[in-house]
From TrEMBL:
The modification Phosphohistidine is found at residue 81. It comes from Tigheibacillus halophilus. The keyword Translocase does not apply. Keywords: Phosphotransferase system, Sugar transport, Transferase, Transport. Gene3D superfamilies: Phosphotransferase system, lactose/cellobiose-type IIA subunit. It comes from the Bacteria. This is PTS lactose/cellobiose transporter subunit IIA. It holds the Pfam family PTS_IIA.
């Protein structure tokens, strides 16, 4: 069927980590803005975080789809780390969305 080589998987992994990290940065900026009552800016930053995490998720999903199609994916601790980073950031986004709702209630 085919195979993804280590170099390609490394690039995919770094892409996931990069976009997940960007998402994390945006989400914490958003909470900071919300804590200061700047909810429009917070919402915009949360959208940017969601866009970044979507890009990271697409890179991960395309790799998993390849494996499901029978394309061999080599074991990579870096890819595992990338998936872990993405999962953690998605959880942080969910938690911070709730925190922003609380700030809106308190300061709104």
């Amino acid at each position: 069927m085919g195979q993804v080589d280590k170099e390609e998987l490394t690039l995919i992994s770094m892409n996931v980590i990069l976009h997940a990290g960007n998402a994390r940065d945006y989400v914490f900026q958003a909470v900071n803005k919300a804590s200061n009552g700047d909810f429009d800016e917070a919402d915009e930053l949360m959208q940017q975080a969601n866009d970044e995490v979507t890009t990271a998720h697409q890179a991960q999903t395309s790799t998993l789809q390849k494996e499901a199609e029978g394309i061999e994916i080599p074991y990579s601790p870096l890819f595992g780390h990338a998936q872990d980073t993405l999962m953690t950031v998605k959880t942080e986004i969910n938690m911070m969305q709730e925190m922003i709702k609380l700030y809106k209630t308190i300061k709104g």
